[in-house]
Design a protein that fits this description.
The complex is a heterodimer. Chain A has helices spanning about 5-20, 25-35, 40-45, 70-90, 110-120, 135-145, 170-185, 200-215, 235-245, 255-265, 285-290, 295, 310-325, 335-350, 355-365; strands at about 55-60, 95-105, 125-130, 150, 165, 190-195, 220-225, 245-250, 275-280, 300-305, 370, 375-380, 385, 390-395, 400-405. By secondary structure, chain A is of the alpha/beta class. Chain A folds into two domains: about 5-170 and about 310-385, 3-Layer(aba) Sandwich (Rossmann fold); about 170-305 and about 390-405, Rossmann fold, CATH 3.40.50. Chain B has a domain at about 20-235. In chain B, helix 1 (about 5-40) runs antiparallel to helix 8 (about 205-225), helix 6 (about 180-190) packs across helix 8 and helix 10 (about 255-275) packs antiparallel against helix 11 (about 280-295). The chains are: A alpha/beta, B mainly alpha.
Chain lengths: ~425, ~300
């Protein structure tokens, strides 16, 4: 089936209508376009999803209250922006996207309950949501039991692959390996100090990092974990000073970051001197707002997206985002990954010619987005994205300068051999 | 655990960790002093203590913005003004809360736990509405940022020194206020025997309101100071509340001296253990030791001798 976005079709025909200036012609053309752009509901929805002749309903499931609201706000904003833009182009299969937003409230059982509500009561055609691994693990059985489709935006530890989830962020190897390779090759790093918050993502990531470092014959001189929300890092900073690593590999998360970088600076470690150099995979532009650019200036981050990326897609994205949410807003890695969700879903639905979950899933591998702000992405057979990894250099103004990017797209490898 | 290090290294480790412990100690005292006044003197379990701290932090944030916008030349001294503003803002809100809510609950101390818990949720949501869900960055004047190098490995953070100085000033002021002023005498009389204090003509209601306000005001100053080392977000106050209660209960709720002694013990133990064990492990061990000691001595390290 040929797909013409509704707005384009309308535009073409309404211009002609204006030229002819005959109301009758215009009316008949309008009817014709409506019938043309929107295939019959019975044909595109055989499983009772919430699809009508002119609307399709999806779910947005993030925490807007509780401790995770800080992080998940950006994802919600990005998903709403994508939906708005898709609607402005005429929607998906001629249907406008309507969303139902639910609040996971930073509480994993609530996430499971709300996802069941979205799938069973609301029959949504797709869900964009979750942030922490804990929330994803909580909703996973629900999505598998009721056959839903989840677009999950956060970079995460890997070791997972579900037919009901498309992972639009990076799995661990996509961030970690390229970052470490870069710092070894470009900066001649030989010893590493691993530091993280104490839960599954930092611990798994550091395990992969340690394996990779040791495989290269280099040394890990320390590995430390602090409880989530910890605000006193003086002791570990002292230890870092004593061990004199070339690289502090810091993957502290959330508010703890603020304390960590402020205390690092106060303890006389100047990151701009790169001795030691700091490499992180957990500090996006969002976190820098809280940390303060002057405290993190000089640090390096390995991510797939930075707000400062210089390409036309990203410029348009940043412009649209700021137009909708204000000039002061910053856009982090996960926000961009969340923005990809609705677009990837739209592309898969249009390729499948149907909203049915099974057909969308079947159509998903190989879906590509040439318009992604990060450049270009493609869905792998394993439901993760092929994407590039970049290294950013933190500046005082809270933005990253992109100093390196992988030449090729990195293949997602959620179950890396020898790294588990 | 010691064998990985040479003797010279061990000396410098203990020096550095001792100092890190002192900073942690100051932080604990600042966190706990306000709570100790309210909890120890009035028996009110103030679960919103953390949110009063964050109020101080947000006031500091606003004032730092104000200065960098309109008076950049005076940015170096904004911090002092911010602390004073935080003191009065949190104190005023504390007096209001006491009047609107707490005074109705003095006969039901456990209910204050629920009421102030509710208050903390309301305050968090207000912060989220006003300042947004994300953390805000408070920039510091330059003179507060760097460190003083002592040896190769020992650098003394200036903001750590500042927090220590502030702790001393506040502790001494509270001591003078509680034990040398007429008002402090009244407060202590009310604590020890409320009906009798009322009978001798002390306005117990007023004393309660001022005590609660003072506790909240100190929390505000603490929050202001913590913008130098911690994060400022709607829920950041929650991070402090467990540690704060730990310090106060361990010290013996009614004794300010106990609070200080307990803060010192916990901070030094934790700081030293953090170096040789992992961070999470140090926290677990600290908690275990505190629980163990509290089992042997339920009234805490120091306790007032009061005839009930």
């Amino acid at each position: 089936m040929k797909k013409v976005p509704l707005s384009k079709a309308l535009g073409r025909y309404s211009r002609r209508a204006l030229l002819c200036a005959t109301a009758a012609l215009s009316a008949s053309v309008m009817l014709a376009t409506a019938a043309y752009a929107a295939p019959k509901t019975a044909a595109v929805n055989t499983t009772g999803l919430a699809v009508t002749d002119d609307e399709v309903t999806v779910g947005i499931l993030h925490s807007v209250t509780g401790t995770m609201a800080i992080s998940e706000t950006g994802s919600v904003q990005a998903e709403k922006l994508a939906i708005e833009q898709i609607n402005a182009m005429g929607g998906v299969l001629g249907r406008k996207i309507k969303y139902i937003q639910e609040d996971g409230a930073s509480d994993w059982p609530t996430f499971a309950e709300k996802s069941k509500k979205l799938l069973v009561n609301d029959n949504v055609a797709a869900v964009f949501g979750c942030w922490t691994s804990a929330s994803r693990k909580a909703v996973l059985p629900v999505f598998e039991q009721y056959n839903g489709m989840l677009y999950y935006p956060t970079f995460y530890e890997g070791l997972e692959q579900s037919p009901n989830v498309i992972y639009t962020g990076q799995e661990a190897t996509q961030q970690i390996l390229a970052g470490i390779d870069w710092v070894v090759k470009e900066k001649g790093a030989k010893s590493f100090f691993l530091l993280g918050s104490d839960y599954i993502w930092p611990r798994t990531s550091n395990k992969i990092a340690r394996k990779h470092i040791e495989k290269k014959g280099l040394k890990v001189v320390g590995e430390e974990y602090y409880p989530l929300g910890h605000t006193q890092f003086n002791s570990v900073i002292n230890k870092i000073k004593l061990k004199k690593p070339d690289v502090i590999y810091g993957i502290v998360v959330g508010g703890s970051n603020v304390a960590f970088y402020k205390q690092l600076k106060a303890a006389g470690i100047d990151l701009t001197k790169e001795k030691p150099l700091l490499l992180t995979i957990s500090v996006t532009e969002d976190e820098i707002r809280g940390i303060g650019g002057e405290n993190i200036e000089g640090a390096y981050a390995a991510m797939k997206y930075f707000q400062s990326l210089d390409n036309p897609n990203n410029k348009a994205f940043v412009k649209a985002f700021k137009a909708k949410y204000g000039e002061d807003i910053v856009i982090g890695d996960v926000t961009q990954a969340a923005y990809l969700g609705p677009w990837l879903w739209k592309a898969a639905v249009e390729k499948a010619g149907s909203f049915d979950i099974d057909k969308v899933r079947e159509a998903s591998p190989g879906i590509e987005l040439t318009t992604a702000p990060e450049g270009y992405v493609r869905i792998h057979e394993n439901h993760h994205l092929w994407s590039k990894t970049r290294v950013g250099h933190a500046k005082k103004d809270g933005q990253y300068d992109v100093v390196y990017e992988t030449k090729e797209l990195m293949e997602p490898d959620p179950f890396p051999k020898g790294y588990q | 655990m010691f064998s990985d290090y040479s003797t010279a290294e061990l000396v410098s480790i203990f020096a550095m960790q001792g100092f890190a412990g002192l900073i942690l100690f100051s932080v604990f005292v600042l966190m706990a002093l306000g709570l100790a006044i309210i909890f120890g003197q009035m028996g009110v379990i103030n679960m919103a203590h953390g949110e009063f701290m964050i109020l101080g932090a947000y006031v500091t944030y606003l004032i730092s913005n104000l200065f960098s916008e309109y008076m950049p030349a005076l940015f170096g001294i904004y911090f002092f003004i911010a602390m004073i503003a935080a003191f009065f803002t949190a104190g005023a809100l504390g007096a209001f809360v006491e009047w609107a809510m707490i005074r109705h609950l003095y006969k039901r101390p456990l209910d204050t736990l629920l009421a102030t818990w509710g208050l903390s949720l309301i305050m968090q949501q207000l912060y989220r509405t006003v300042f947004g869900a994300r953390e805000v960055g408070v920039s510091l004047p330059d003179w507060l940022m760097g460190s003083i190098p002592m040896t190769d490995t020992i650098d003394i953070p200036i903001n750590g020194l500042f927090v220590m100085g502030l702790t001393i000033v506040i502790s001494v002021s509270v001591y003078l206020l509680m034990f040398k002023s007429r008002w402090g005498g009244q407060v202590r009389a009310v604590v020890q025997n409320r009906p009798m204090a009322g009978a001798v003509g002390i306005n117990t209601e007023k004393s309660d309101r001022m005590t609660f306000a003072l506790g909240c005001a100190i929390a505000g100053v603490a929050g202001s100071a913590f913008t130098m080392i911690g994060s400022t977000g709607p829920t950041a106050g929650q991070l402090y509340i467990v540690d704060t209660f730990l310090v106060v209960v361990f010290g013996g709720a009614q004794s300010l001296l106990g609070t200080i002694a307990s803060a010192f013990t916990i901070s030094q133990a934790q700081s030293t253990m953090e170096f040789f064990l992992s961070g999470s492990m140090a926290k677990v061990l600290t908690l275990l030791v505190v629980v163990g000691i509290l089992m042997l001595r339920p009234q805490g390290l120091f306790a007032l001798k009061i005839r009930h």
